[in-house]
Specification:
heterodimer, A: mainly beta, seven-stranded mixed β-sheet, four-stranded antiparallel β-sheet, 11 strands, 0% helix, B: 112 residues, mainly beta, six-stranded mixed β-sheet, globular
Chain lengths: 112, 112
């Protein structure tokens, strides 16, 4: 089945640790995105990638890093520089940046 | 002021009622999306529209470009419609990849 997978579903981070969230798609989409969702707020764009080996900062990129070495994979690293990382993280992909985005199931990150 | 405003924030209805969720935006757009987020967090794209009206089953989405307003209607509502409904607009930003700006969502609860 085609789709987007994110792992893990829940992730716990200790203070000062970096953690990496996985996002994989087998839809052959060029564009991929990472969003953060906080209670009572709309989704906010962290990073996006229009094509493999390219990515751009979104509205809230500080404290995060990404890579796009393969078309199907767009991992997000939450670094220790991100002071308030507890949130729900959603990955999405689309054929290109002007088409409908398809979302993964999300990863909930909690800081211990 | 947020670029995308949804109303109401919360809505409780009895099964069978006709439901309307509103979305107003303040930027020029190329398309507007309606998304559905279930309690587990996964997001499903319901509609993408740039003019007029679209219908899928019991769901109807309309948009008025001149008034910068869209509505999502649910006919014969059912408890399984209970979810957060999110409006998102693709703004017409020149010289860059188009990005989505999200409303904060409307929590719909349909009681049996």
């Amino acid at each position: 089945d085609g789709g987007i997978t994110q792992s893990p579903k829940y992730l716990f981070r200790k203070e000062g640790q970096n953690v990496t969230l996985s996002c994989e798609q087998n839809l052959n989409h060029d564009a991929m995105y990472w969003y953060r969702q906080d209670p009572g707020q709309g989704l906010r764009l962290i990073y996006y990638s229009q094509i493999v080996n390219d990515f751009q900062k979104g509205d809230i990129a500080e404290g995060y890093s990404v890579s796009r070495e393969k078309k199907e994979s767009f991992p997000l690293t939450v670094t220790s520089a991100q002071k308030n990382p507890t949130a729900f993280y959603l990955c999405a992909s689309s054929i290109n940046t002007q088409e409908t985005q398809y979302f993964g199931p999300g990863t909930r990150l909690l800081v211990l | 002021k947020n670029e995308v405003e949804q109303s109401p924030q919360n809505l409780t209805a009895q099964e069978g009622e006709f439901i309307t969720i509103n979305c107003s935006y303040s930027v020029g757009i190329s398309a507007l999306h309606w998304l559905q987020q279930h309690p587990g967090g996964g997001i499903v794209s319901l509609f993408m529209l740039s003019s007029g009206k679209k219908k899928h089953g019991r769901l109807i989405a309309t948009i008025n470009i001149q008034e910068k307003h869209s509505s999502l209607h649910i006919t014969a509502s059912h408890p399984r419609d209970s979810a957060v409904y999110i409006c998102a607009v693709m703004s017409t930003t020149s010289g860059s990849a188009r990005q989505l700006t999200f409303g904060s969502g409307t929590q719909l609860t349909v009681l049996p």
